[in-house]
Design brief:
four-stranded antiparallel beta sheet
Length: 322
């Protein structure tokens, strides 16, 4: 006997709502559609497995993604994106195809969102992993390869397109992936946070462009931590000049990566400005530092050994480094 299409089990008014494309009409949006299905199952508990959702408590619900997407007429990836972007949090891991979810303000009797969730919904829409910056000292082919690699790593880490992701979750996953074998996870996490999302920025989410800029500074992924350690050691030994946060105007020596060409380190020392580039596809075992005259060096240490700088210790009040 053929299995009954779950859509045929729904009242006509609910079918009509599910078939609407998302618009300014609140009832056409994902949150409303999900809440309507949960309410329907609450009145028809025997249909729980066919519809794929059910309230467990007044503010927690379970979903079976495979069944739910069939009813809602969307793909699982679309479901995952909606759940994440709208602030739903998974409470328990998958069990027999079911997962437990919760979101502030989303209850049996309400779908109201708090201000933080509304702000998150207003974040920019995906733009196809398009990057607005360039890379210095590389060919167009290398830049294209760099973009493809960044997109692959981001997708692996987030399981999403280029939408913003939660900062803590992203840093945790990136640390697990990028840390050296002997490196403590906590240390890797602290290093990444200081560079990608420094404390002064108070960032709740990480954008794809931020991640790509980080990869330009210290890629490729296999030796990210080695390149960071090399540059950080040079900074700490010559005045602690490396900064990833806004710094004061009167600092005698300061090094920051350029926003529009993020593989370029700009070193300002009194009246002089020096630019040095990281080759983002060259691992730390190769020559990856390039100076203004296209001379290459095997490390940041080697560059500064051959190009020593005059310095004086920068007061802690000027900048926060690691």
């Amino acid at each position: 006997m053929a299995e009954v299409d779950p859509m045929n089990l729904l009242p006509l008014n609910i079918k009509a709502i599910l078939q609407r494309k998302s618009s300014r009409d609140p009832s056409s949006r994902f949150t409303s559609k999900l809440h309507i299905l949960l309410s329907f199952v609450a009145s028809n508990p025997d249909l729980e497995n066919k519809i794929g959702c059910v309230w467990v408590t007044d503010d927690e619900f379970r979903i079976n993604k495979k069944a739910l997407v069939n009813v809602m007429g969307i793909k699982i990836n679309t479901l995952n994106v909606n759940l994440h972007a709208l602030g739903f949090n998974q409470q328990k891991h998958n069990k027999d195809g079911w997962t437990l979810w919760k979101r502030p303000g989303f209850t049996r009797n309400s779908i109201e969102m708090d201000e933080a969730i509304q702000t998150q919904m207003a974040l920019p829409k995906p733009n196809g992993f398009r990057l607005t910056f360039t890379l210095g000292k590389v060919s167009q082919g290398v830049f294209d390869n760099f973009c493809a690699i960044c997109q692959k790593i981001w997708s692996d880490l987030t399981q999403l397109d280029d939408q913003p992701v939660n900062t803590s979750l992203f840093i945790q996953k990136a640390a697990q992936r990028f840390k050296q074998v002997e490196q403590p996870l906590d240390n890797a996490r602290d290093v990444l946070k200081a560079i990608i999302a420094p404390s002064s920025s108070h960032q709740d989410v990480i954008h794809y462009s931020q991640f790509a800029k980080f990869m330009a500074m210290f890629g490729p992924e296999e030796t990210i931590m080695l390149k960071i350690a090399s540059l950080l050691g040079c900074s700490n030994n010559t005045g602690q000049w490396l900064a990833f946060e806004p710094v004061g105007q009167n600092i005698p020596l300061c090094g920051t990566f350029d926003e529009n060409e993020p593989n370029r380190l700009v070193l300002r020392n009194r009246s002089t400005v020096t630019c040095i580039w990281n080759a983002p596809l060259a691992p730390a075992s190769q020559n990856y530092v390039i100076d203004e005259y296209n001379k290459v060096y095997p490390s940041w240490d080697d560059y500064f050994r051959n190009n020593p700088i005059e310095y004086q210790m920068v007061p802690d009040s000027y900048m926060n480094t690691f």
